[in-house]
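user: can you give me the structure for this one chain? C-alpha cells are fine.
assistant: on it. calling the predictor now.
[tool input]
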Amino acid sequence: MIVISVDPYKPTHTATALDPATNSDVGSLRNEASLAEYQRLIGWAKAWPDRACAIENADGLGHHLALWLLARGEVVLDIPTTATARVRELSRGGRRKNDRIDAAAAASVAALQGDARQVHPETTADSLALLDECRVNLSHSRTRTVNQLHALPRDLMAGGALQPR
C-alpha cells in the first residue's frame, strides 16, 4: 500500500507518495487548493490503486480536501501536526522544514507511527453543531453591539444618558 500524504496550506497543497515498505518517497505533487486541482491530485494518485490518504490537520486547513476525498471513496487519515513535527525533529536534518518534508513526515506517521486517526464523513449532528456555533457567535456579537450603542450616548453626553424607566 502507498500512503499519499498531503501538507495543506490555504493557497496550495503538497502531496507526497510514500512506500511504507521502504520508507521511500516515490513521487510528489504541488497543487492549488481548488476543486479542479483536487481532481488533478486524485488523477495523480490513481497511479497507486492500493493507497490511503494521510492529511496533516484534516480538521483544519485540510478539512475541505479530506471531505472531498471521503466523498470519492478514499481512505483518509488525520495526522496531528505535533506528530509530523516529532518525525521531522527525529529525522536527518533536525528542524528542516518544507512542504515536501512535511508531507513525507505525515505519510511516515500514518504508515509507521500509529498516531493517525481515520476521518469519517460528517453527520447531521456535525452540521447542527456548526450551525449552533454560528448562532451563539451571532448572538454574542449582537449583545456586544447593543451594549456599545448604549454606552456611546452615556460617554458623549454630560451627566450620562438617562436610564429608561
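assistant: here you go. Residues 124-156 form the longest helix (33 residues). The two ends are 74 Å apart (CA to CA).
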